[in-house]
Amino acid sequence: MKKLSAEVLDALGNDVEVPAYDRATVTPGIVHFGVGGFHRAHQAMYLDRLMSDGKALDWGIVGVGVLPQDRRMYDVLSAQDHLYTLVIKHPDGTLEPRVIGSIVDYLFAPDDREAVLTRMVDPATRIVSLTITEGGYHVNQVTGELDASDPALAADLEPGATPGSAFGFVVEALRRRREAGVPPFTVMSCDNIPGNGHVARKMLVAFARLKDPALADWIAAEVRFPNCMVDRITPVTTDADRAALAERFGVEDGWPVVCEPFTQWVLEDDFGGVRPPYEDVGVQIVEDVEPYELMKLRLLNASHQALAYLGYLAGYRYAHEVCQDELFVEFLLGYMDNEGTPTLPAVPGVDLDRYKHQLIERFANPEVRDTLARLCAESSDRIPKWLLPVVREQLAAGREITRSVLVVASWARYAEAVDEQGEPIEVVDRLRDKLVERARHNREDPLEFISDPDLFGDLAADERFAAPYTAALKSLHEIGARATLEAPSAESI
Q1: By CB distance 3.0 to 4.6 Å, which of 98, 190, 211, 402 could disulfide with 17?
Q2: What's the predicted TM-score (pTM) here?
Q3: Which residues form a coiled coil (predicted)?
Q4: What is the rounded distance in angstroms from the CA atom of residue 1 to the CA atom of residue 12?
Q5: What is the pLDDT of residues 111-151, one digit of tens each?
Q6: Is CATH 3.40.50.720 the right assignment for the domain spanning 2-286?
Q7: Domain coordinates of the chain in residue numbers?
Q8: CATH superfamily of domain region 290-492
C-alpha cells in the first residue's frame, strides 16, 4: 500500500499510469475556481495529457476554493503534492487508473485572500477557468439578469471589501491587472449553462458595474469569455471507490475521481492571448459551440432529469438501474426523439440518432454507479436551463410536450420530500425550503409548485402546459411513477 505523493510515483505498479513529465518543470498558467470531481476528470485530465506529450508545461493549474467545504479538498491535495488518481470505470468492470499531475497548487481563499489575488494578477496567469455550478452565476432564471441578492455577492459589493466569492476575486483581479498595465486573462466557464461564456461575461460585467462602471466597460471591451461544451459523467467518489483503488492497485488516495470512459470538450477559439494546444489531445476547437451545447444540454442533461425523479419515485437509486429498464428507456428515447431533438439546430459532424442511443449506453454503465440523488440535486438551477427551454420552443411551434411535462411533474412530486413508500427524501437544492413548501400543496392546489415566476415564468397560466401538468401530477399521486408510464394513457407519452 502506498500513500499517493510525488515520492511514490516511480514505485507504483505498471497498472497505474503516472505523469510522463517532470512536474518540477511545470509552471502555473491557469487559476481554476471550483476544483471538484468534474474538473479533475475533465479539464485537468486534458492538460495532463498535453504535459505527458511534452506540451503546455507552462499551463499548470492553481486551484482555488472559496467555500467552507473546499477546505477538505485543500487538505487532501496538499497532503498528496496535489496529485490524485483518475479512475475510468469500463462497463465490463475494468478499472483504468491514472495519476494526474497538472494541478500544481491549491489555495483555500478564506485562509489567504491576498495570495489568491497575487496569483491571479501575475502575468503568467492567462486563463481563469470556472466550474462553480449552474447556480454560481447568480442568474435570475426568468429575467436572465444578475441576481445580486446572494450574501457573498452583497459582501463583496461593500466599499473596500476583500473578495470572498468567485465573482469578487475575478473582478478585483481584473481591476488590479488593469491598474498595473497587465493584459487581462481569459475567463473560461466550463459549467453546464447554455452560452456559458456569454453568461459569464454578462453576469461578471453586471457585477463589476455595481462596483465600478468604468471597470465594467473595460471588462466588456477587453476580456474574452469563450463558450464551451463539456461532457463526462463523473459520479461522487465513494469509500468503496477508495477501497477498490487501494485493494486492486495499492494506491491510497484521499480523494480519487471516478468517471466513465467517454469524454468530450467542444471549445470556442476565443482567447485573449495564447492558450494550450487543446486540439492536440482531442478537444474540438470550433467557431460556434451552440449546436453542440444545445445537443448536450437538451439531450444528455435534460434526459438525466427525465430519468432521475421518475426513477427515484419508482424505487431505483442508480442511473444504470433505470436505463436497464426498457420502460424507462422507451420514455427517454421518446423524449429525445420527439421533444428534445426538434429544438436542435444541425450539429456538424454528429449523428444524432447514434448519439442518443450512445447516451442510453452511457447511462446504463453499471460500474459508474451514478446516484439518482446526485442527478436530482439542485434542480432549481437545472430544470429552468435544460428542460424548460425545450418546453417553450415546443409550445411556440405547436409541438409535443407531454414527456417534458411529466418530468416537471415528477420533480414537483419528488420535492414533496416523501417517496411512494412513505420514506423521506432528502431534497438537496439551494431553494429547498421554498420548493418543499410549495410541493406540499400539490394535492389541493396542483399549480402551486409551477406558479413561482422566478423559475417557471408564466407557464402556470398557459393551459397547454398547465392542463397536462395537472393530469400528470394527479397520476403520480394516484398510481405512482411506474404505473403512470405503463398506463394506457401513457401511449401519448
Answers
A1: 98
A2: 0.90
A3: none
A4: 9
A5: 999 999 999 999 999 999 999 999 999 998 888 999 999 89
A6: yes
A7: 2-286, 290-492
A8: N-(1-d-carboxylethyl)-l-norvaline Dehydrogenase; domain 2 (1.10.1040.10)
